[in-house]
Design goal:
17 helices, Growth Hormone, Chain: A, mainly alpha
Length: 482
């Protein structure tokens, strides 16, 4: 199909996939900056506001594999369109949410929609573009998505400061309608004729296992690690995920075929993805809290701090993908994550009260350069490591790894942040004080310094993991496009 499609139509296919993916780009970037305002407005505690993010990541991470496999079997365009529709309807529910529990439920349904549309978009691109074009196409997709995401932090911050955070979700409706119209017009249907069955038992096991682990890690700082519910959740989650691996090894139509991991490229790039997106997701979740609570930024200013990331990715991702098409992905996937790690480390340098120039600017710029080098080549390398008929499953596995990385990052780094804060805070009830910090209470100097110290430990942990991802990329990524 890639050889038969004219260049102009391929451009419109990219437009359709970018518009659909922009639903998740804008939502994610805007919501991160607006979370403190949402917490204040709905009266949510620290654990509840973590679940506003976790509910989305949980359903997305667990079901994105089903989304990729469903696209291969039933048609990639069809599944992509269904995902856009589900995401739009869930956005309406989130925009109307009267309580944090309602919002968490709506975010979970958004994750289901994203689990269909995200691998669907990547699989549509993989089917429409040949192997020698995919690096540039995926880079353009990532760059254009970053440009859409660029407005997210600014819009989210402005709405949190001046208007209503609920409009973050209403923005999705006109974008979804436009996506559907263009997709119906220009995107051809494609599928894997050999695809059979969907692995619903695997999806259920993955979701329940990840949910048990995530809840346990999120609740542990408050209930204590020896609490029976925490121990039961951790043990149960591990057992459920072990059963999931066994089901995938023996199932007739596994959503995560373990045979794919026999490819050292596929295994290595997915390990790189796990580490890099763990680092990025964790840093971007906790950074707005430090900027707003400790540095004194408004939500709008915190959103503006993300601009270098979006601008650099938007302008240069296509060029980075083209370089990988020509010279291979190994150079990009080693240098890119290492630069991202350096950028994350720079975010830990400014002290309390720093401004924008002497604060997050340098770190966000270097982080953006590193991620720009990595994102497009990463996706192209994963999909190039499998047979053409399995691109939907490959994109699903890689997206699942990225989303599970984000889910684990928020939970595990939240535990780390709490532990360091409690150790540093000069307070007999440090855990309650941390809840007040997250909820926006005025801080004394000691509490602000304790939170900033904890934030620095979190960010430096993220930086180390990103550098490790670059080392793995240098060892496993392909030298030349396959």
């Amino acid at each position: 199909m890639a050889a038969a499609l004219p260049t102009a139509r391929k451009r419109w296919i990219l437009v359709a996939t970018v518009l659909g993916s922009s639903l998740t780009f804008i939502d994610g970037s805007a919501l991160g900056v607006a979370l403190p305002a949402i917490q204040n407005d709905l009266g949510a505690g620290p654990a509840a506001v973590q679940w506003v993010s976790n509910a989305y990541l949980l359903t997305l991470g667990a079901l994105v594999l089903i989304g990729g496999a469903a696209g291969d079997r039933f048609g990639r365009r069809r599944v992509f369109l269904i995902g856009v529709a589900v995401f739009a309807l869930a956005s309406i529910a989130c925009g109307l949410a009267p309580t944090v529990e309602w919002l968490i439920a709506g975010r979970g349904v958004q994750g289901i929609g994203a689990a269909l549309l995200t691998p669907g978009a990547l699989a549509v691109i993989g089917a429409a573009f040949g192997p020698d074009e995919r690096g540039k196409a995926f880079g353009t997709w990532a760059g254009a998505g970053a440009l859409f995401g660029m407005v997210g932090p600014l819009v989210g911050g402005w709405l949190a400061d001046q208007a209503d955070w609920r409009f973050i979700f209403w923005i999705n409706i006109p974008l979804a309608i436009l996506t559907v119209l263009i997709t119906l017009k220009v995107v051809p249907e494609s599928r894997d004729e050999d695809a059979r069955g969907l692995d619903w038992p695997g999806a259920l096991l993955a979701m329940t296992g990840l949910a048990a682990l995530t809840w346990s890690l999120t609740a542990a700082p408050d209930l204590g690690w020896s609490h029976p519910a925490i121990l039961g959740g951790l043990i149960g989650g591990v057992l459920l995920l072990a059963v999931f691996v066994r089901v995938e090894a023996r199932g007739k139509h596994p959503m995560m075929p373990l045979g794919l991991f026999r490819s050292p490229v596929f295994s290595g790039i997915n390990l790189l993805t796990l580490l890099l997106y763990f680092a990025l997701s964790g840093a971007m979740f906790f950074l707005p809290y430090d900027l707003i609570r400790v540095q004194g930024f408004s939500a709008t200013m915190a959103g503006a701090a993300m601009l270098p990331f979006a601008v650099i990715m938007g302008l240069f991702s296509g060029f980075a993908g083209k370089l990988a098409d020509r010279f291979g992905a190994r150079l990009s996937l080693s240098i890119g994550p290492i630069l991202a790690g350096i950028g994350l480390a720079l975010l830990a340098v400014p002290g309390p009260g720093a401004g924008y120039i002497d604060g997050p600017l340098a770190g966000m710029t270097v982080l953006a350069i590193g991620m720009t080098l990595a994102v497009g080549p990463l996706t192209a390398a994963v999909m190039g490591a499998v047979e053409p008929g399995h691109t939907g499953i490959a994109s699903g596995v890689n997206n699942a790894v990225a989303r599970v990385a984000g889910l684990l990052a928020v939970a595990l780094l939240g535990v780390l942040l709490s532990a360091v804060f409690v150790a540093r805070a000069d307070s007999p009830d440090a855990r309650a004080l941390l809840g007040q910090v997250m909820a926006g209470a005025d801080l004394d100097t000691a509490a602000a310094e304790a939170f900033h110290t904890a934030f620095r430990v979190v960010i430096l942990t993220c930086a180390a993991l990103a550098v490790l991802a670059g080392i793995i990329g240098g060892l496993t990524a392909p030298r030349r496009p396959r």
